[in-house]
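lol ok so funny story. i was supposed to be doing the assay writeup but got distracted and ended up predicting the structure for this chain instead. priorities right. anyway since i did it might as well share w the group, maybe its usefull for someone
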Amino acid sequence: MGFVMLRCALCLGVLLAGSVLGLTITSTGPSSIEKAGGETINFDCRFTLAPEDTGPLDIEWTLLASDNQNRDQMIITYSGDRVYEDYYATMKGRVHFNSPDPKAGDASINITKLLVSDTGTYLCKVKKAPGVNSRKTLLTVMVKPSVPKCYVEGSSEQGKDILMKCKSAEGTNPIQYTWERISGTRILPATALLDRVQGSIVIKNATSDNSGTYRCVSENRVGKEQCTLSLSVVPPSNTAGTIAGAVIGSLLVLLLLAIILYCCYKNRNKKKYEKETAHEIREDVPPPQSRASTARSFIGVGSNRSSLGSMSPSNMHEYAPKPQYNPVPSEEYERPPSHVPHPPASKVAAPNLSRMGGIPVMIPAQSRGGSIV
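and the output, tada:
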């Protein structure tokens, strides 16, 4: 029984000695690193060899798959005293060994111009038969906050609550916002309420003493940016004057509309009146002569008879006063003046002439010889 225990102890000693004397990774840096996009990272992987490690030296750097559905991606290797770094197109030209001679014990690499897609677990594996060892490092590439925008939302009058906001358009969460006063007392007002997640600050019941310059800092684990805001607390506005001005302005607009409507109404009535009067028959204008009377006038001139000889009681009805005509309303019936029909002249006997307001006139008779009777 004692012989068996002694033999097991000797075997364990040999194993421990082999693990100590074999190839060893000596780097003791953090196993998890956070970097901002665009920066450079150094993956530390230093090693030592044991005397019995006599085989060829091989160094491999691999980006491990995030799940079992994908395969690991080789990014750079050292084998047979040569460097091979064109395995991963996304990192081509951005990944290099830290030492020009990795076999001296430095298998560390540098990756420049980091991208968010570079996030993952990187494995450094060093082999020199019979020794083999490896080391994993988790990289998280974050986007640092962009320069935030500071502004006042709403009113900045005395006696009211003033809301100031600060926001970065880009950046990996979580982002924390802090406000500070950088002028005057350099102390935030006692009534200020700060929201570090939303980046806002509310000054309750603001006074003129709260005027000044404020600074907001936007920060996450990989970087920070800032902006400044000049706050001016103004006296309250004259609400009554504003309302009175609005009322007066409204009344002026209504008055202007009333004047426009009145002018349009007057103009329409004027055009209507001119249209009606254009078709009226005026009493003081004699009616146009008929063709028969015109023909008689030409015959009288040709026969050299005087106009007095043609006047006799028998034709007195031709000189009787014409009846008056009432104008026809334009809405019911409109006709151009040239087409207005003339009623036939009424024949009035001489005895009735006096009753109609006419004055009888004695017309001398004329004989056939041309002498007046």
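Residues 1-20, 292-314, 327-335 have pLDDT under 50 and may be disordered. Residues 256 and 262 are 10 Å apart (CA to CA).
back to the writeup now i swear
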